[in-house]
Amino acid sequence: MINSGIQNNNKGDMGTLNGNQVNMDSLIRSVKSEDARNLRISKSFLWIYIVLAIVYTGLIVINPDPELKLIDRISGTCYIASMVVFAWIFRAGLKEYKSIDYSLPLIEMLRKVAKRYQLRARKFLILSIPILLMDAGLTLSFYEDLLPMEPINRVLIIQVIYIPVMTISGFIGYLVWRRKQKPLRDNALMLIEELERE
Fold first, then answer.
1. Rounded distance between C-alpha atoms, residue 22 and residue 197, angstroms
2. How far out from the chain centre does Cα 134 lie?
3. Is residue 130 part of a domain?
4. What are 120-151's pLDDT values in tens digits?
5. What average pLDDT does the structure give for the chain?
6. Distance CA 18, CA 4 (A)
7. Quick one: how far is CA 178 from the chain centroid?
């Protein structure tokens, strides 16, 4: 039965493929709901990062305060670059979710759902760019003033904190994908397989 991960509350929505019951309407409703949620997230974070990038540019880069050292400005530039890349990522997501067409032929729409919610290494590689830029900015900002110790030890302390935080955040993101999006992708793939057998 192709209904894994989908709430099956309305039996009137059920169709049949090769004798298998397929809750098509429920799957499409769940996909639309998840797409709408991701659209809202992309829009919200896009504006958050745009605002943060503008504020940091004013405070750290343009600010003529002579007490701001060169290393502070370089650190601030890394933060801003990180925010710009994050904004670009969420802008791409916003564009993707805005362009979804549910009027496509069923099998084509399902293929796009499966592709949209596939966990791809390319996404992690792109996401690693702003994460590394943020790491560089954080490391530079505490390079001189964190603790009375050798600079290399200060850098190591930052990494000991930053890397686990990013790892835990990534794992939480994976769990969210596994709970909310993987079932949609699995159902779409199973339904595609059934349709292609027809």
1. 15
2. 16
3. yes
4. 888 889 999 999 999 999 888 877 665 566 77
5. 84
6. 17
7. 13
Is residue 1, in this structure, part of any structural domain at all?
A: no
Cα-Cα-Cα-Cα dihedral of 74, 75, 79, 84, to 10°? 10
Euclidean distance between CA atoms 184 and 186, whole angstroms: 6
Rounded Cα gap, residues 160 and 16, in angstroms: 54
Is residue 7 assigned to a domain?
no
**pLDDT, average across residues 163-181:** 94
User: What's CA 25's distance to the chain center, in Å?
Assistant: 27
CB–CB of 14/23 below 8 Å? yes
pTM as predicted: 0.80
- The first and second tokens of residue 160, run together, are 């000991």
How many domains does the structure of the chain reveal? 1
Range(s) of the domain holding residue 125: 15-197
Distance CA 114, CA 187 (A): 9
Q: What is the pLDDT of residues 47-86, one digit of tens each?
A: 999 999 999 898 887 777 777 788 888 989 999 999 999 9
Residue 10 lies in a domain: no
Residue type, position 183, single letter: P
| Residue 32 structure tokens | 């639309």
Among the listed residues 166, 94, 95, 161, the one whose alpha carbon sits nearest the alpha carbon of residue 128: 166
What one-character DSSP code corresponds to residue 177?
Answer: I
What is 119-161 written as a DSSP string? --HHHHHHHHHHHHHHHHHHHHHTTTTSSSS-HHHHHHHHHHH
Residue 96 near residue 116 (C-beta atoms within 8 A): yes
